[in-house]
User: Fold this.
Amino acid sequence: MKTFLALTFAFTTLTSMAATTATLLLKGTVPQVLSIAVTAEPVASNLPLATTQSNTKVASVNERSNSNTGYKVTISSANQGKLVRSGGSQQFPYSLTYNEQSINLSSAVVITNSTPSSVSVNKDVDISYTGVPNEQMVAGDYVDTLTFTIAAN
Assistant:
């Protein structure tokens, strides 16, 4: 009988110590997505320099971000907004718009999107310049390289 009372007391003590509330933490993690891709139009590698161009689309840029602090895109030009003849010093100036915003390529330009959101957006890159007759330019390829970089704020 003593054993039965001892067991009953132990069982009663254990059940009286059981919690009446418990919690379960559920957690998932979304990794950060930051990417940028440039898709060139055919005209980008064969610009008609003798013909004036006004807001001619040369590329589309896809920006992807889900950063909780927003993101920024940096645009820079290897030749500060000029097409430069390979192996020479002749220059052909142009102007650029990115998503209909004028970009001064004399130095790197930072475009900030400070809103935290999930985006996948395409933006147009357009070029404008005043054409110069071929006989007034030195023969050769005139080039510039634009670099687009995306980063979290």
